[in-house]
């Protein structure tokens, strides 16, 4: 049984609208991201920017947005249409602070009609009497809007502005590119003229025509018995030639009237009287994709290449049209929607790049705010920071160490995105820049050693600065403080139990009294300095240039030397630590031999020692920390190595100090540790490095979660009265100092590397510590579009491009993989293998694609080892028993197995071993052992078995099983023994199983569906993962999924003991958790294609993790009702179910 949970919500924006939704005077922006609505309002602290006020999941993908203002409402209502043809109006309920459904509709047009091929459209006519919906070809649904009429037709005051039921009206225009209601002059009298709609249509011959049709509406006197009627019979054609590249119609308001026709090479004006068209050519051809009105004369236009234009319509003295001018404002993300906000600000919603808020400037534009978008995700790879082997198990995504690296966006908005689950920081305020790099920060209390912190000590390279915090949050820098030395760097400072302050600098250890007088001082011998210090209350351990260890202790306010040890030349100290968890002991790291040792504080003699690494010269211990991480377990020793590894040991006892060794990679440089106390008496550890991580315990195991503090250099806990639970963070080389709170639980964090090309394919090589990226670059030069394709080698840590290999002209990269191939000596070596396709399909006898094999040289350059010309495009690649499997398109054999062999050690070549033909064209393949799963363009999934030659019997590929159903496949992965997860172009997920144990050959050859559901988004890639679950795990992660909308999902299988409970819980929650528009959960998640709709039955053996986790958002009484309706006895009641759901949430 299958479980699916989101790990990244959809981020691609296709629809947005500005309205007064939250209040009558509010300026709100509502953004649609797949099946989610997000409501933004101006940020009080930054009025030019927006902040998220509310988000809501819908049971349907949003395709239409429009605003209405009924007379009974002080604020605007939102009209929403979905891809399932559900339409409803929403309002904001200020009391519940949630969306309220005002009215819902279901489309009544004929389902036999073809869906609109150019997108759904919604319009309201200028007189605000009608709304039109265009969702099918040749059909317009007219929805009357109640207005103040006369006599029996007069609407009640509380009904004015309300929508009536839709009336389907047929029109002869089928392939419609654009429509708009045009403004009309009103004749004398009070009767309003009928609205007119301009329709831009492409006829069967490919020519464009524009017709203006008049909407005639007849209101029924007995609506309960006879419905209203509407028709578009009366029409007139626009006179003149319409440009073939025309895409948009823009209506002009009074007193200009008429409308503009936006094309690729010209922008035309159609006048209002005779509908004559006049063209004005553009200086440079382009493809416009969206527009919005700035005011009555200015319109913002966005093209397909990311340029934003301003169209200015000139007027005569009488206000009539007098020409137009278009200017380039600048570059933005490629816009899918434009929404004018106010004061020259425009929201640029993008489905190919980050969405933005831009400000129109006199000479261009300025980006005010950016909203991250990782969609569309064309490909991704799972990069485990915890190990570097391609075959090892992957850490759970929730640990924060398993990174998902995605190829996101398209063309100039293309980028690499690193997606990690981690712990975020919320800024509380910035203290300022220190002017130099901060080496350490310390928190002090001005009253006692146990009081709340109100003094922040900041150590720089050559001085120390003191900041005093008042209870109201005011901060003051002090020139002097209780006799402390401030003209040197401070290595340690802490308040003692008697109120005195111990301070250690590079030359001395001092104790000042509560009154600020010098109480005691210890100075290091001439010619030496203190390089490392560790302290525990009155005890201080010093390292003098790594050659001498000195243990000091305060006795009766005097520094006394308790032990001193001079080290041999081959055991110089690199780091030290003390901890109350390890009394009478200390831990020391050495420069030589990657060694750490446990020393007795009585004489600093070694009690135990271990080597943290056997073979790496960079594995030098550079930082140490001892913390109580897990309840009931011994203290944990953390060792930060110079190469970025973090090693942990359990300190069970002095006799057995270093046990349960574990290692994890956090970067390429050493990590420094800060202990953060927890309310339960345990501790968390914050590791500061290239990839900062919070280390804590969860369910009896230690968890590393990424922290969004990328530039931090020093951190300390600063639990003050004004800022309880805060931490002080110093970052960057200029020493920017700020306060923040750290999240109690992890969230998803995204890092971006702009590539400015479409990252179509990603292959990751742990051995080479690099990515192979297949990219496509598109440029527009003098109106001519040029496309180039490259294979790029990119470093895994800093994402720096190392080398780029250009493909041939008109050749595009189709697939890329890493593998191990023979290097000519019999040894295996890492290789990148690339499959390509040529755009020029008209050339006779020309190659349609190639397979290229690359090696990476010692200087980290790509070197072409072998190329193989193909008669078809190479759609995807995989490895099967040391051979290369290629899925080809438009060839006699679709799936081909090639052997990589050598004539001489420097002359490799391909040998075709076996082939298989699919029904139409292979889209994706998944290989397990000698079994190849192929998802077809139209005919779902087939299972092919590769059999090597046996004597005279040649190599063969033979079909052993098939899914006998029409499914337009997009991706496939093996998620269990003889089990496959497949996706299709209509947003469905299907789990298929081959029953190899059946006695019936027919059953063995038939893949049976074990689970299916509608995801609502098209999946581009599925990557299987292997995770070792705990014995009590409710679900076992099996794969990650990425979609065109920027969503990422975790697919898991449910433990048998939890299957019945979760299925029952889903059914009960579906009754309680309501979606806006009153759409049923079963309708949304039920499998749906053009030939089969399971909306009445819902998902089959598929559990929606998002709905399950909604249980935690219910009130306690509602939770009790849900658990009571399960129909089975749950021993712990709602509390046990809460624990189960919380555990499921932590999985992803």
Beta-strand content? over 45%
Ends: how far apart? 18 Å
Mean pLDDT: 89
Uncertain residue segments: none
Shape: globular
The residue fraction in helices comes out at under 10%
Estimated structural class: mainly beta
Which oligomeric form is depicted?
single chain
Number of helical runs?
A: 6
What is the number of strand segments? 87
Largest sheet: 8 strands, mixed
User: In angstroms, what is the radius of gyration?
Assistant: 34 Å
What is the strand and helix layout of this fold?
Elements: E1 2-8, E2 15-19, E3 28-33, E4 36-43, E5 46-57, E6 62-68, E7 77-82, E8 86-93, E9 98-106, E10 121-124, E11 130-136, E12 139-144, E13 167-170, E14 176-182, E15 196-202, E16 208-214, E17 216-218, E18 229-231, E19 235-237, E20 248-251, E21 259-262, E22 266-270, E23 277-281, E24 288-293, E25 298-303, E26 307-315, E27 321-331, E28 337-340, E29 345-349, E30 355-361, E31 364-371, E32 377-384, E33 402-408, E34 415-423, E35 425-433, E36 438-444, E37 455-460, E38 464-469, E39 475-478, E40 490-495, E41 501-505, E42 508-512, E43 518-523, E44 530-536, E45 539-544, E46 548-555, E47 558-566, E48 573-577, E49 585-590, E50 595-600, E51 606-611, E52 621-627, E53 636-641, E54 645-650, E55 659-665, E56 672-677, E57 683-688, E58 693-698, E59 701-707, E60 712-718, E61 726-731, E62 736-742, E63 747-754, E64 758-765, E65 770-781, E66 784-795, E67 801-806, E68 811-822, E69 828-838, E70 849-856, E71 862-870, E72 873-880, E73 883-889, E74 895-904, E75 907-916, E76 922-928, E77 931-936, E78 941-947, E79 956-962, E80 969-976, ...
Parallel strand pairs: 1-87, 34-59
Antiparallel strand pairs: 1-86, 2-3, 3-4, 4-5, 6-7, 7-8, 8-9, 10-11, 11-12, 12-13, 14-15, 15-16, 16-19, 17-18, 20-21, 21-22, 22-23, 24-25, 25-26, 26-27, 28-29, 29-30, 30-31, 32-33, 33-34, 34-63, 35-62, 36-37, 37-38, 38-39, 40-41, 41-42, 42-43, 44-45, 45-46, 46-47, 48-49, 49-50, 50-51, 52-53, ...
């Amino acid at each position: 049984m299958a479980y699916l949970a989101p790990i990244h919500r959809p981020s691609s924006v296709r629809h947005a609208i500005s309205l007064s939704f939250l209040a009558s005077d509010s300026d709100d922006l509502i953004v649609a991201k797949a099946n989610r609505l997000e409501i933004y309002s101006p940020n009080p602290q930054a009025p030019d920017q927006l902040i998220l006020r509310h988000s809501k999941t819908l049971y349907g993908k949003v395709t239409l947005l429009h605003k209405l203002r009924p007379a009974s409402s002080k604020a605007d209502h939102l009209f929403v249409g979905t891809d399932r043809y559900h339409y409803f109006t929403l309002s904001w309920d200020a009391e519940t602070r949630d969306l309220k459904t005002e009215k819902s509709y279901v489309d009544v047009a004929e389902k036999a009609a073809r869906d609109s091929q150019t997108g759904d459209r919604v319009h309201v006519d200028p007189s605000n009497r009608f709304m039109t919906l265009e969702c099918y070809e040749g059909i317009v649904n007219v929805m009357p809007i109640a207005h103040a009429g006369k006599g029996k037709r007069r609407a009640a005051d509380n009904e004015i502005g309300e929508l009536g039921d839709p009336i389907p009206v047929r029109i002869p225009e089928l392939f419609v590119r654009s429509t708009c209601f045009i403004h009309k002059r009103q004749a004398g009298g009070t009767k309003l003229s009928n609205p007119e709609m301009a329709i831009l249509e492409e006829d069967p011959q490919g020519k464009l025509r524009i017709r203006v049709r008049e909407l005639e509406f007849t209101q029924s006197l007995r609506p309960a018995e006879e419905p209203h009627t509407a028709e578009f019979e009366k029409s007139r054609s626009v006179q003149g030639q319409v440009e073939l590249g025309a895409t948009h119609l823009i209506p002009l308001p009074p007193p200009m009237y008429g409308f503009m026709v936006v094309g690729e090479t010209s922008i035309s004006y159609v006048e209002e009287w005779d509908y004559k068209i006049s063209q004005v050519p553009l200086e440079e051809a382009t493809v416009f994709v969206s527009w919005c009105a700035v005011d009555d004369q200015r319109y913002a236009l966005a093209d397909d290449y990311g340029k934003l234009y301003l169209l200015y319509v000139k007027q005569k003295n009488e206000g009539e049209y007098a020409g137009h001018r278009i200017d380039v404002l600048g570059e933005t993300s490629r816009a899918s929607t434009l929404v004018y906000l106010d004061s020259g600000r425009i929201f640029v919603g993008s489905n190919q790049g980050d969405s933005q808020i831009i400000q129109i400037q006199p000479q261009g534009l300025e980006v005010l705010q950016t909203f991250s978008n990782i969609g569309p995700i064309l490909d991704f790879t799972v990069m485990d920071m915890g190990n570097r082997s391609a075959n090892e198990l992957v850490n759970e995504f929730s640990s924060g160490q398993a990174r998902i690296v995605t190829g996101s966006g398209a063309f100039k908005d293309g980028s690499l995105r690193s997606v990690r689950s981690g712990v975020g920081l919320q800024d509380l305020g910035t203290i300022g820049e220190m002017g130099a790099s901060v080496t350490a920060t310390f928190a002090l209390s001005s009253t006692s050693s146990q009081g709340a912190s109100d003094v922040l000590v900041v150590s720089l390279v050559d001085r120390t600065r003191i900041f005093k915090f008042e209870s109201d949050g005011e901060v003051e820098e002090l020139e002097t403080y209780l006799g402390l030395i401030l003209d040197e760097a401070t290595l340690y400072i802490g308040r003692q139990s008697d109120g005195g302050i111990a301070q250690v600098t590079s030359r001395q250890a001092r104790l000042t009294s509560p009154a600020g007088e010098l109480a005691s001082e210890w100075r290091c011998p001439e010619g030496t300095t203190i390089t490392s210090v560790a302290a525990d209350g009155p005890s201080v351990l010093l390292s003098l240039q790594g050659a001498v260890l000195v243990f000091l202790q305060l006795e009766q306010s005097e520094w006394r030397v308790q032990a001193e040890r001079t080290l041999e030349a081959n055991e110089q100290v690199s780091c030290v630590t003390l901890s109350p968890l390890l009394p009478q002991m200390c831990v020391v790291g050495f420069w030589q031999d990657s060694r750490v040792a446990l020393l007795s504080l009585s004489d600093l003699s070694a009690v135990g020692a271990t080597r943290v690494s056997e073979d790496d010269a960079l594995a030098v211990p550079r930082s140490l920390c001892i913390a109580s991480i897990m309840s009931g377990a011994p203290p944990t020793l953390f060792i930060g190595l110079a190469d970025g590894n973090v090693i942990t040991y359990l300190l069970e006892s002095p006799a057995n100090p270093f046990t349960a060794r574990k290692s994890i990679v956090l970067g390429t440089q050493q990590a420094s540790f800060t202990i953060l106390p927890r309310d339960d008496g345990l501790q968390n550890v914050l590791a500061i490095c290239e990839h900062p991580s919070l280390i804590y315990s969860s369910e009896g195991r230690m968890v590393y979660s990424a922290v969004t503090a990328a530039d931090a250099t020093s951190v300390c806990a600063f639990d003050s009265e004004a800022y309880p639970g805060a931490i002080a963070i110093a970052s960057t080389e200029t020493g920017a100092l700020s306060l923040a709170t750290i999240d109690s639980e992890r969230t998803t964090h995204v890092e971006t590397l702009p590539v400015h090309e479409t990252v179509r394919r990603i292959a990751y090589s742990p051995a080479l510590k690099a990515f192979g990226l297949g990219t496509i670059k598109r440029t527009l030069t003098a109106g001519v579009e040029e496309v180039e394709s490259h294979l790029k080698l990119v470093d895994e840590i800093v994402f720096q491009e190392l080398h780029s290999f250009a493909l041939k002209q008109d050749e595009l990269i189709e697939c890329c993989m890493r593998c191990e191939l023979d290097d000519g000596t019999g040894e295996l070596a890492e290789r990148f293998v690339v499959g390509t396709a040529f755009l020029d399909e008209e050339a006779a006898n020309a190659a349609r694609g190639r397979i290229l094999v690359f090696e990476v040289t010692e200087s980290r350059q790509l070197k072409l080892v072998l190329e193989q010309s193909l008669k078809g495009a190479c759609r995807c690649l995989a490895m099967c028993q040391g051979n290369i499997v290629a899925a080809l398109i438009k060839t006699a054999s679709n799936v081909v197995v090639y052997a990589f062999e050598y004539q001489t050690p420097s002359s490799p070549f391909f040998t075709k071993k076996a082939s298989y033909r699919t029904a139409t064209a292979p889209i994706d393949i998944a290989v397990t052992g000698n079994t190849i799963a192929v998802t077809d363009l139209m005919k779902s999934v087939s299972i092919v078995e590769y059999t090597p030659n046996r004597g005279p019997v040649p190599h063969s590929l033979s079909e052993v099983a098939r899914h006998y159903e029409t499914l337009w496949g997009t991706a496939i992965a093996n998620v269990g023994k003889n089990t496959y997860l497949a996706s299709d172009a209509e947003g469905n997920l299907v789990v298929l199983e081959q029953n190899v144990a059946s006695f019936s050959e027919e059953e063995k050859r038939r893949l049976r569906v074990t689970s299916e559901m509608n995801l609502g988004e098209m999946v581009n890639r599925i990557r299987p993962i292997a995770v070792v679950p705990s014995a009590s795990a409710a679900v076992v992660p099996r794969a990650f999924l990425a979609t065109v909308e920027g969503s990422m999902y975790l697919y898991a299988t449910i433990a048998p003991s939890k299957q019945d409970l979760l299925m029952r819980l889903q059914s009960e929650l579906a009754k309680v958790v309501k979606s806006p528009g009153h759409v049923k959960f079963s309708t949304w998640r039920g499998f749906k294609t053009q030939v089969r709709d399971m909306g009445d039955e819902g998902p089959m053996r598929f559990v929606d993790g998002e709905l399950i986790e909604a249980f935690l958002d219910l009130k306690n009484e509602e939770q009790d009702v849900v658990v009571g309706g399960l129909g089975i006895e749950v021993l712990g009641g709602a509390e046990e179910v809460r624990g189960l759901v919380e555990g499921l949430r932590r999985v992803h």
